[in-house]
Design a protein that fits this description.
- The structure is a single chain.
- The chain is mainly alpha-helical and 144 residues long.
- It has 4 helices and 2 strands, in the order H-E-E-H-H-H.
- The protein has a two-stranded antiparallel sheet.
- Helix 3 packs antiparallel against helix 4.
- The two termini are 20 Å apart.
Length: 144
């Protein structure tokens, strides 16, 4: 138990992990939706879904923070704006608009919506973890 919150452990070792797993199993039996993850310190913790934030499942570089998702949103917005120039550009030379480039506009707008939504999820999870005194989950996928 860390900071008075069941589902986390202050020490390492199999006994602490067993206590967290036991709490986790009890919470699942009550109907709570919880997930076991290691923290950045290597301790086992039982997270509620809203505390977890953005979970990655890749060994490649990935975006997990609200700031990172906002940078991605800016990139997608620039893609959408550039694609509009591709659509309207040929009209300045008396040609028909390049309607096929609207696919990039739609993809860029969809990327902006996705990135902004994920930034909100990441921000809310970080705020909840700070309010509740819960450690940040690790990006590693294996329970070591």
């Amino acid at each position: 138990m860390q900071n008075g919150i069941p589902g986390s452990n202050a020490g390492g070792g199999p006994n602490s992990d067993d206590q967290v797993r036991a709490y986790h199993d009890q919470a699942l039996a009550r109907g709570d939706k919880r997930f076991l993850f290691r923290t950045v310190d290597g301790r086992l913790h039982s997270y509620a879904k809203d505390e977890l934030g953005v979970v990655t499942a890749s060994s490649h570089p990935q975006v997990r923070s609200a700031g990172g998702f906002l940078v991605l949103a800016v990139f997608f917005a620039a893609l959408a704006a550039f694609s509009l120039l591709l659509v309207t550009g040929p009209t300045s030379r008396g040609q028909d608009p390049l309607w096929g480039a609207l696919i990039l506009t739609v993809a860029g707008a969809g990327g902006v919506l996705y990135a902004v939504r994920m930034a909100g999820v990441a921000s809310k999870a970080k705020r909840l973890r700070a309010e509740r005194g819960i450690p940040e989950p690790t990006a590693r996928q294996f329970d070591m």
